Amino acid sequence: MTLLPGAGDNTDCDLVARLWQLLNSPSSGEWYLGSIIKNGLRVPALGIDIPPFPDVAIGDIPQQTMFDWAAEHLGIAMSDTVLTGLGTFSGGDVVCEPVSGTETDVTLTLQFSRVDFYGGYDVGASGLTGCALAYAAAQLGYPPSSAGEGGDPRLELAAWYRDDPRGLGQSENGKVLVGTYYLHEDTIDAVTTAPASEVPAAGLYRQVLSQQKRSADAVNASTAYYQQQESGEDPPGRPPEIGDRPQYDGGFKTYVYLNMAVQQMREQAGLPLEPGNEFADLQNAMAQFDDQIIAYQEDNPGEHDTRKIMEYVAAAGQLPDEKRAALGLRGIPVHAPGSEEVVGHVQPWPVDRDRALRAHAARAPRAQAADDWFHVLGEFMDRSQELSLEVAAAFTATSDNKLLARAKSITIRIGALYIILGNEGGFNSRPGLYDQVTYWIANTPSFQDLLISKLNAGLNSRTVLDHLSDALNAGLKKLGLQERHAAT
Known about the structure:
The chain is α+β, with helices and mostly antiparallel strands. It has helices at 12-23, 33-39, 134-139, 153-163, 172-192, 200-210, 213-230, 245-268, 278-299, 306-315, 321-326, 353-363, 433-443, 445-459, 462-478, and strands at 2-3, 41-43, 48-50, 55-69, 72-84, 89-98, 103-112, 115-124, 332-335, 342-346, 375-384, 388-397, 403-413, 419-421.
């Protein structure tokens, strides 16, 4: 265990050390963390009742377009996926750091002897993909996962810009924009739907969205007109224009609160604002998207129709440093805790365009095959090697001097997934196809990224975090350490 320099007279790391000695030792019996995960823990006298949680439901993986086979597009979807084996916990390490007189940050690194990822798969000739368009769905106040569903014409319009080659897919920049969303889809969904009690800025973000009806109606009218034109129709009248001052102000306010919400969730997870973590990469992408809007407004004052904006999207390049300086663009804003006040900036880093384009290609919708000539159902299994979980937890002293633990976030550490598809015989009519599919799964970074992102999202469910919090608090109760200054 690593004890970092304390904050004042906060000695709670001494209590955390004793707690970890209990939970990390197989000789602790039912109090061993591996036993709690596998079998649960029930001690009525101490008010402890934790159910087993060795399995975590990950959910469905929407269909991904793989490659062409016999002039058709092949896609793969996964369903009812599960991560199992958390009960094989085999030990771990702790880093403990007091951050104030009453707050202590703890990072747990948990190791496992065997964790499996499994579920059903569907390989077929149709490549029709169901997914969400980030910004449009968020602007309408819907969870991103609902884009294109339920018959709402605004979301159907957003889905057209996402999916149709005549929409954002007509330019490389447009594909990068959509692909960047795909890479951050789960994080956007988690941030925009987070309870305001846990992420206050998320509640403010939704409140601001609800006040943007006038802007949403104007955007809907302009973008619908362009869609009709590109689809060969002849809409009546002049193309509606957008971009007046209230619309820009409302859009900027929306960005401020969304960025604040992402920052709050990133800080709760104990992650820095630098490349390599999902929250920071999302903040970086949003900041550069907002910078492009400001540059467009400066170069093209007044209101314009959607065609003008789409032409700008297609041709826009990285903003030069001198242009950014002239516009007063200082980087990714850092807000004071719980405030709109900006107390600093971090210089943005380049968006990985190649990775975004791969993500777009993997999710790009294809025409439905006229004849469903090939279709294989089966189950898959991945033996997750060298998997570990990094749990960020906070230990807080309450006003009555009790010490309470709360698991805030989980980050999975894993190498490439090695997926083994069952029902190999289902591919017998197409020699060599089974090998090609398994090779694509193993060697397509965007698909591997998607699977790992889904695993992270499943592990960060409120249920899993609550069970881990309960296990930590149960250990404190067992040792009599729920009172901060219990005799040592």
